[in-house]
Write a structure and sequence with these properties.
Elements: H1 3-6, E1 9-13, H2 18-32, E2 37-42, E3 58-61, H3 68-101, E4 108-114, H4 121-127, E5 131-135, H5 139-149, H6 153-159, H7 163-166, H8 189-201, E6 207-210, H9 214-228, E7 232-234, H10 238-241, H11 254-260, E8 267-271, H12 280-293, E9 297-300, H13 317-326, E10 327-330, H14 335-340, E11 344-349, H15 353-361, E12 366-368, H16 374-385, E13 389-391, H17 398-410, H18 412-433, H19 438-451
Parallel strand pairs: 1-2, 1-4, 2-3, 4-5, 5-6, 6-7, 8-9, 8-11, 9-10, 11-12, 12-13
Helix pairs in contact: 3-4, 5-8, 12-13, 12-17, 17-18
The structure holds uridine-5'-diphosphate.
Uridine-5'-diphosphate (UDP) binds next to helix 2, helix 14 and helix 15.
Length: 455
């Protein structure tokens, strides 16, 4: 890269939520290491701070007008739609100022925006700048969202109410069933379809980047390459290639000391990510089942994740008693370090895409309990395609919890085979981000296309 190109700038536009911030900041790190300057334009919510790790990055904030109480009452889906309505003008203004005061149009190599920050596309069009979509979910969920954006909404709503249809395969998306489609639990079905349609219909990007790898989902990536008619770059998993600490909550590292005292591959690590909620009765059944399994467990219970309770105070005394026998609770864990720890034998997860990649990246098999959106797609792939996860469906009961933990960690062949497959996949992922690997080459191709302005 020559002197002129070293100074070229990439602007990133993240969705203000942990699962989106983490991979886009990793992408920023990866591109920074290739010689680009990075500007992050973010909303006022869940802002990433310009910590030591990002000291070379420029951070700009676009003003918004939603208060936190608005956010909570809207739910995640409507919040995103609202954000897209209210931020378009202020983003254009902020971007215009950046161009006027600090950098020339030619210095900007491209703008990379999270698929759901589609309001930003209007500004790129106006300033005639190349834009690229970054999808923080996998390619298969992206395919599903394109399909959902075009369904006949009336028919789909009827279909989704029929239990028989829910359990049947969705045409053209094998092995996904209707109930595995990435519709959101944080809004109505109509809201999901509206959001996906808006995001799809405003797409003008010249390329799409995925935090995924060909060894995980080659057929969906090939399908997208065909259907989108713009280059598709699977460059993940970014957390292996470009770790970039961007936790929005404080990590409690005391759990590592606790893990140090546990037997190898004995611990069940439990986390529902940054948004997942769990009712009191499910928490209690889980604690009973975990306790009956006799396995130690490390449980992340985020403040606010038990509805009607600040933390765990609304749970009955039995819960604390069960947990204190074999478990350890934290409000937020250093997840990647936890998954890397030799004591961890399995990950009970909501199957967010980052958690899924992090677990596969450490060869840890999973208990899959998806809640919403693409988590359902990931869980289906974990169980049926990669075969490194056990899906837990239906009501949570202590007997099923105990059984699933034993199947994964304690009893013979099934768990051992899953662990072996998880380790094989971990090795494939590591190879894909090494020099000459598919994701590493894909990132190089993307960077070369920026150099030659070839998109
Ligand atoms: N995470 C963490 N500590 C925790 C729980 C989660 O650092 O105690 C991180 C995790 O490593 C992952 C992210 O939060 O990178 C969650 O993203 P994911 O896509 O899995 O789920 P989401 O939060 O978007 O539902």
């Amino acid at each position: 890269m020559d002197e002129k190109q070293v100074k070229r700038r990439i602007v990133l536009v993240p969705v203000p939520a942990q699962g989106h911030v983490t991979p886009i900041m990793q992408l920023g790190k990866a591109l920074h290491s290739k010689g680009f300057s990075i500007t992050v334009i973010q909303t006022q919510y869940n802002r990433v701070s310009s910590s030591q790790d990002f000291s070379d990055f420029q951070f700009l904030t676009i003003p918004g007008t939603l208060t936190d109480s608005n956010l909570q009452s809207l739910g995640a889906l409507r919040f995103l739609m609202k954000l897209n309505q209210i931020c378009e003008a202020s983003f254009k203004h902020c971007f215009g100022q950046l161009l006027q005061e600090q950098v020339s149009r030619d210095d900007i190599a491209c703008v990379i925006y999270d698929e759901y920050m589609y309001f930003s596309a209007a500004a790129f069009k106006e300033f005639q700048l190349p834009s690229v979509i970054f999808s923080t979910t996998n390619a298969t969920a992206f395919v599903c969202r394109s399909v959902l954006s075009k369904v006949n909404a009336d028919k789909f709503l009827i279909d989704m109410k029929d239990p028989e249809v829910q359990n049947s395969l969705f045409p053209g998306l094998h092995p996904l069933r209707y109930k595995d489609l990435p519709t959101s639990a944080f809004g109505t079905l109509e809201d999901s379809i509206s959001l996906y349609s808006e995001a799809v219909n405003t797409r003008t990007a010249s390329a799409v980047i995925f935090n995924s790898a060909s060894c995980l989902e080659s057929s969906s990536l090939l399908r997208l390459q065909r259907e989108l008619q713009v280059p598709v770059y699977p460059i993940g998993p970014l957390h292996i290639a470009a770790s970039a600490p961007s936790s929005l909550l404080e990590e409690d590292r005391s759990c590592i000391e606790w893990l140090n005292k546990q037997e190898p591959t004995s611990v069940v690590y439990i986390s529902l990510g940054s948004l997942g909620l769990m009712e009191n009765k499910d928490m209690l059944e889980m604690a009973r089942g975990l306790s009956n399994s006799n396995q130690p467990f490390l449980w992340v219970i985020r403040p606010g994740s038990v509805p009607g309770s600040e933390w765990t105070e609304s749970l009955p005394e039995e819960f604390s008693k069960l947990v204190s026998e074999r478990g350890y609770i934290v409000k937020w864990a250093p997840q990647m370090e936890v998954l890397r720890h030799p004591a961890v034998g399995g990950f009970w997860s909501h199957c967010g895409w980052n958690s899924t990649l992090e677990s596969i990246g450490e060869g840890v098999p999973m208990i899959c309990r998806p809640i919403t959106g693409d988590q359902k797609v990931n869980a289906r792939y974990l169980e049926c395609v990669w075969r490194i996860g056990i899906r837990l469906e239906g009501e949570l009961e202590k007997e099923t919890v105990e059984r699933v933990v034993k199947r994964l960690i304690v009893l013979g062949e099934e768990g051992a085979d899953m662990r072996k497959r998880a380790i094989d996949l971990k090795e494939k992922l590591e190879a894909s981000v090494r020099s000459g690997g598919s994701s590493c080459s894909s990132l190089d191709n993307f960077v070369n296309s920026l150099k030659t302005k070839n998109f």
